[in-house]
Amino acid sequence: MLTTPSPADGSANVDKARWRKIATDGLWKQNPGVVQLLGLCPVLAISSTVINGVSLGLATALVTALSGATVAALRHFIPNEIRNPVFIMIIAALVTCVDMATNAYLHGLYGVLGIFIPLITTNCIVLARAEAFASKNPVCESALDGLAMGLGLTLVLAVLGALRELIGRGTLFSGAELVFGDAGRALVLHIVPAEANYQFLIALLPPGAFLGLGFLIAAKNAFDAKSGHRALLRLAQPPAHPKPEAAR
Hints:
Blueprint: H1 7-29, H2 40-46, H3 50-74, H4 83-105, H5 107-113, H6 124-132, H7 139-169, E1 171-172, H8 177-180, E2 189-190, H9 201-204, H10 206-236
Antiparallel strand pairs: 1-2
């Protein structure tokens, strides 16, 4: 017996597709670090190690997700004329909570990240998602959009930090003790022996950050171009005809 899909099934499929698109846009297609090129100040300044980059990226993702959900929940009560100041106040309150929590529980990491945690308030990514998406969409979708955008930035910071740390110091996960305590020292990988005193200074300075980000952008564009070319080739191929069954 043939059954027709119910409207509920159709709406569920639409919701899944929309949620998948929001996540894909934030993590890859509209990645704020290598596509939109937003928030470049922390990307270039903090990405000297994996730990620094991932820590600031996760803090940004938390603020972006919470601010998106808050703005979406209050969007009908915020007058259009003063929406940007209200958005900034919401973001500033959330950043203050993250800043104080980091200072209280991860004081060593707080000393390294310094002013860049409070500067999340003025990060283009956070305010842009509140204005462009959260102010026009429901709470759950806005939270997912903010989280995906923040994790997309975290991914860029992690890869860029790994490249700069590996080339500049010959290590990975340096500074893990700032997050995990003394046990984090066991997580540090010395690709180059510590006694060699290896250091490639340009990779640790801002020029190295610019060069590394440029290589990441070029790699993503090349991957997207290759994927698009493969998709066109698949569309150009004629459909395969089923083989006739052998006569019995």
